[in-house]
């Protein structure tokens, strides 16, 4: 089992698949209102293929194994 504090500002291994493409999608976009940002994130989710989501799920066992074998470290150099 991977230990987690009650609140962790870091991201979980399961988030890596999602946040890099989302960051690239939002790169250099500017939002005047929170609602505009929210709609852009929804647009990103809607634009992803089923294969994108499947890959994220399929990669979880390997990501978790990396964390467990590296003493709960998410990022290993």
Automatic annotation (TrEMBL):
One of its GO terms (molecular function) is nucleic acid binding. PANTHER family: MARINER MOS1 TRANSPOSASE-LIKE PROTEIN. This is Histone-lysine N-methyltransferase SETMAR. It comes from Caenorhabditis japonica. The lineage of its organism: Eukaryota, Metazoa, Ecdysozoa, Nematoda, Chromadorea.
């Amino acid at each position: 089992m991977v230990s987690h504090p009650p609140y962790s500002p870091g991201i979980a291994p399961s988030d890596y698949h999602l946040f890099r493409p989302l960051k690239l999608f939002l790169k250099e976009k500017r939002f005047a209102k929170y609602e505009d940002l929210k709609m852009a994130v929804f647009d990103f989710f809607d634009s992803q293929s089923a294969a994108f989501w499947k890959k994220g799920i399929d990669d979880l066992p390997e990501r978790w194994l990396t964390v467990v074998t590296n003493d709960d470290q998410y990022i290993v150099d």
